[in-house]
Every structure is written in structure tokens, then in C-alpha cells.
Amino acid sequence: MSKKQNxxxxxxxxxxxxxxxxxxxxxKEDVERGLSLxxxxxNPFGFEIGCAYGREAGEIxxxxxxxxxIDIAENFIKIAREDVPEARFEVGDIEVDALPSGIDLIxxxxxxxxxxxxxxxxxxxxxxxxxxxxxxxYISLKLGEYKEFTKTD
Length: 153
Fold this sequence. Notes:
Blueprint: H1 3-12, H2 14-21, H3 28-37, E1 45-49, H4 57-60, E2 66-71, H5 74-83, E3 88-91, E4 103-109, H6 117-130, E5 131-140
Parallel strand pairs: 1-2, 1-4, 2-3, 4-5
């Protein structure tokens, strides 16, 4: 599925997807583990790739007031801003947009699985450059062989 198709689906079904996944627990243990690895600062700058409607953002901002979540779907960002007003959210595309500098901790919870394999190296290199020395890049992905497919809904 193309990026344009994905973005369209996430924008048109943002509220439905939030409702569908609202029964899933927030990745509290993952957030805490990521933050525990980020020992160089008391109030680290956390950056989340593919924050969707802000499910994990609420947990992250309990530990730091320096958070920025990005997502390619504008309607997800609108929901996130309403649900987690103490966090900062922006519409952004990790494949093409510049990352902020001085990041202490990057979270990517099942979001990089949408990045085509031929773009992944560039995304990872840009993330590395955006991280402070000893910064942490906390990634969760699905286990399995990489394959691209299109599913009609």
C-alpha cells in the first residue's frame, strides 16, 4: 500500500482506529524501560515517530515535559492534541521531514513497519544524527520476513 493510501486510511478512520485499539494497554513498561536507559538527563527530550492518536504520549509526558510526537495523519494529530493537551504534536513524515536536533530518546512503536525497506537506512541514519550522544532509539517491530503487500479494505 502506498504512503498516500495509508495516510488517507488513517485520516478517514482515525476515530474508528482509536476506538478499536483503545482496549489495548498503553506500552507503559516499554516507555519506562526506554526512559530508564536514558540516564544522561532528568528531563529528557522524547520524540515519538508515528504517535497516532497519542496513546503512549500520555505515559511519556508523565516522565518528561519535553516531548514531541509526529504522525503523517493530520486527523490522528488532532485527536492526540485533544486527548493529551500537555504534549506537543505535529504532522510529519519521518521519511522526508527534518528531525529536531538534541533528542535524548526516540520511540517508534510499530510505526517503522510502514517505512519501505529502501528508505529504512536513511531514516535510521537521520535518527542517529538527531540523537544526542548516548541517546536511545527504542524501536518495536513485528517479527517476520519483510514483505510489502496491498490489502483492500
